[in-house]
Amino acid sequence: MQNNRFLLTSLIIMTGATYQAQADNIPNYSPLVFGATYVSAGADAEFGGDIVAKTYFVGGADTKVTGSIQSGTAITLGANSKVDNDTDSGTATTLGASVTVINSYYGTAFTLGAGATSNENARTQDHLDYTEIKVTQRRKDLSLLDVGLLVKNKLKTTMDVTTILSPLSDFHGVAADGAESATVITDNQVVYNLDSLTTGAGITLMLKDGYDYVFNITDMLSLGAGTKIVMCSDITQQLVCTESNSNNTVTWNLGGYASIGEDAEMIGTVLANGYISTGVDSKMTKGVLYSETSYVTIGASGTVYP
């Protein structure tokens, strides 16, 4: 994401004395999930990193967080949840029965359920000032670039068949439903520009590896139930994808919101001006989730991993 010339994303955290050392040790600290209002998760949801919610965080029963949780006001965790690091709330922290947290920092109230374990730490110094957290995103107007670098793409705004997104592909046009070669810029970056993107249920978008992909979407991204977005090292004419372990990145730069259906599997970083909502059993990997002005919700048994 740092090498993406079309996006400038920063998370700036201004801290009180309590967190100054942490900020110094982790410059430009970027959590896995950031909600400008709240973050919520259904039962059995899993997060492979830190969560920051500007107002509150609510996790259902058996929520698992490999990292820490920070919120401007309250944190609530359902029964049998586990946080591998600390929780820090501006006001109240409530841990359900048999919840496990290392340290619980809070402003005014702390509730520990039956069988729950955590070190209780009432805050005596200034809490992290969430009013100073800023997530910014900038779209670069591609029309201002050298026109010789641009190839007009005709990526359809509604995908209803399995689609190969591969610039200069030998299989260009196979079941592509109107997709054409995307803009190819230097440093192997591929850029699609469109107003919105919607998929039907059960659609697969195959991205050929060897490129970093950027989707500049003016409005919203909506993936139907069972949609899969995969990076492929090889794609046959029969539309069989050999999944890639490459380090190529995918960035979804949204002026609106992201709605991810149940059982969907998506890769990449989602930078949304509006909300981000994922369905039951959804899988989000190889990126982070940022809502600049709204909330992030993860469905029951949904997972988010970098």
Number of strands: 35
Alpha-beta content class: mainly beta
Overall tally of domains = 2
Tell me the major beta sheet. Answer: 12 strands, mixed
Mean pLDDT: 79
- Taking all Cα atoms into account, the compactness measure Rg is 20 Å
Percent of sequence in beta strands = 35-45%
Task: Point out poorly predicted stretches.
Answer: 1-28, 131-152, 169-181
Total of helices: 1
First-last Cα distance: 12 Å
Helix content: under 10%
Shape: elongated
Spatial order of strands in the largest sheet:
15-13-11-8-5-2-33-30-27-23-20-19
Q: How is this structure best summarized?
A:
The protein is mainly beta.
Question: Please, could you describe this protein's structure?
Answer:
By secondary structure, this protein is an all-beta fold. It folds into two domains: 10-135, no CATH class; 143-272, no CATH class. Helices cover 3% and strands 41% of the residues. The chain has one helix at 17-25, and strands at residues 10-12, 33-35, 39-41, 46-47, 51-53, 57-59, 64-65, 69-71, 75-77, 82-83, 87-89, 92-95, 100-106, 109-112, 117-122, 134-136, 158-159, 163-165, 183-185, 189-194, 197-199, 204-208, 212-217, 221-223, 228-235, 241-243, 250-254, 258-260, 265-267, 269-272, 276-278, 283-285, 289-291, 296-298, 303-304. The strands form five sheets. A twelve-stranded mixed beta sheet has the order 15-13-11-8-5-2-33-30-27-23-20-19, with no helix packed on it. The N and C termini lie close together (12 Å). The model is unreliable at 1-28, 131-152 and 169-181 (pLDDT under 50).
